[in-house]
Write a structure and sequence with these properties.
The protein is mostly helical. Helices cover about 75% and strands about 0% of the residues.
Length: about 700
Amino acid sequence: MNGSLSLLIAAFFPVVAAPVAWAAGRRDGRKSIAAMVAFTAVELLMLLALAFTGMGRELTMDGFVGMGLRMKADGFRVLYACIACVMWLVTSIFGRDYLKHDHAPGRYALFTLITQGATVGLFLSDSLFTAFCFFEVMSMASYPWVAHEEEPEAMRAAETYLYIAVIGGLVMLMGIFLLPAGMATASYHQLSELAQGHNLWLAAALILVGFGAKAGAFPIHIWLPKAHPVAPATASALLSGMLTKAGVLGMLILTLHLMRGVTSFANLIFWLGTITMFLGAFLAIFSTNLKRTLACSSLSQIGFIMVGVGTQGLCVCENGLAAFGTIQHMMNHSLFKLVLFLCAGIVAMNIHALKLDDVRGFGRKKPAMHFCFLLAAAGISGIPGLSGYISKSLLHEGLVEYIHELHHHHLNALPYEIAEWVFIISGGMTLCYMTKLYICLFWQKHPTRQDEFDGMKNYMSLPSTIALVASACVIPMLGLLPDVFMTGVGQLSQPFMNAADPHHMPVPYFSHENLVGAAKSIVIGIALFFLQRAFVMKKGTYPERWPKWLDLENSVYRPFIGLLIRVGHGFAWLADHLTDWAIVAMKAVGGFFARLFDSTGDGLSMTVRRLFLPQITKKQPIPVGNRLTYAVGRGLDSIAAFWARLTGRKVSSETHYESLLAAGQHEAATEFKRFTRSVSFGLFMFCVGLIVTLVFLLIA
């Protein structure tokens, strides 16, 4: 298969297959899920074939949506497209259990496949405009995931998700329009060269709003903790593990290509990531809902990745460690959230509950689930020997390297030293909240339902078990053999990230400094866990300690949007009444000119009468029309009679022209009166004034 054609097919095959999957399940929803599994498997095989035969190929379609379509297959892009397809396949297999008794499996399959195609297209894109097109399709197609249950809480969360998606997309499009000509359709690797000599801060900041909203970055993260608890667990795994990476991809493009070398922009990404990293972990500690805790965890882990992206931008030519750590943690986070959300899905589909007080002890005597959850929880907490330790160590090492560089150049490094401690503490907080979930599910006992939980032997099918266990087994494999797998992932991504090789090859994953950094986070995490048990938990239960008024969406964003609506309504009311007032004023002006016209006509008629018709006195009434039309008509009648005598024709005693002119004047006056009372007259006068102003400016 031609490499360029395979790029196009990889992006559009799931979209074309989606209606087929929907139609297959119109009578039996299970057929839709089976079709979805088959189509996602075919998509994965196509991406693997592209990885082996089409690497480096490019596709350019001039004129697509007016601006052209650009796609490219390189190491990073094909790697992440393959990771996306693996996640779609695993969640589809698990969906056979989770959606077995669901009310709309066909609809779920339809939008899941459309979202898959858009996500693959986004990761294979090679221009900002192409990325925007796929990004918008992905955002709109994933909305039904959040609204899937159609309950009030789900619809409200879906409303928030849609608001953020639409506003973020429009702001991003505005930023793309502000780019100099040709940059929106240029290849990513051309952007840094084309950006030379241009101040692109405003455009980049606007584009960042769109990508940051999808990533769940502070302060537009509000959709993420609301959407995950209400969406199906299979969709939550994709929302958290993959769609957030679409936002990270945009940050990489902006930081490493469009704004390459702009330290202030890299600092923006870095500090937003630092806040996001800490805030997500802090919210997760106080969360009392299983999926909401995992959603807040995603928020925190995206912050870790953003710190890596910002560090790459700060280090520029010495960004090897940060680049390796960024792509590795992107991949790790996708893997962790795939396993963790599917474990949460096991809980939800068996007992239809997610509150920690309701799910206590569910995982006891369930070895497969216990094994998978423990590996993912320990991995995301950065325990040595698992893949999370590898990526977090490199992110931390990249930050430490930048701090050393600042010291070497005698620059102020204190803010970044504080950020390093926030990084370590956030890692400890990750261990704290993951330990909370682990103890709750697998060690605590439910006060009334424990026997029921222990008796659930067939809590998931064999295909789901195989898919989940296989995914979990990748975590220690990547962690114990990092030089074989993790280094290769970093090297594959180097060209896309403009990354240098790390100073030390092979990378010192298990160096003394990295192990000490991991140990600090572990000690902090253990201490925070016991503090949480003392001050947050209550006799083994999980009361809601987080104040409701601290909800950013309800306390800030929704009131702000309401204020904007009221202000907009006020402006609309004012504009509406200003139009009426303007029309009244124009009517007054028009009436003045009409009266002036009538007076002028009367004056002219008197002049004509005195000059040509002296026999008519002021006291004589006018038979038809006004004095002007009557006088002009009589004059035209006289001329007609004179011409008839000259030509020898019979002179008619009847008058004609004064009647015709009188009728015309009456019709014109009626139409003018009706016209001056309409909106059209106001608009006409406005256009006249605008034309006069433009003519004056041109002459001046």
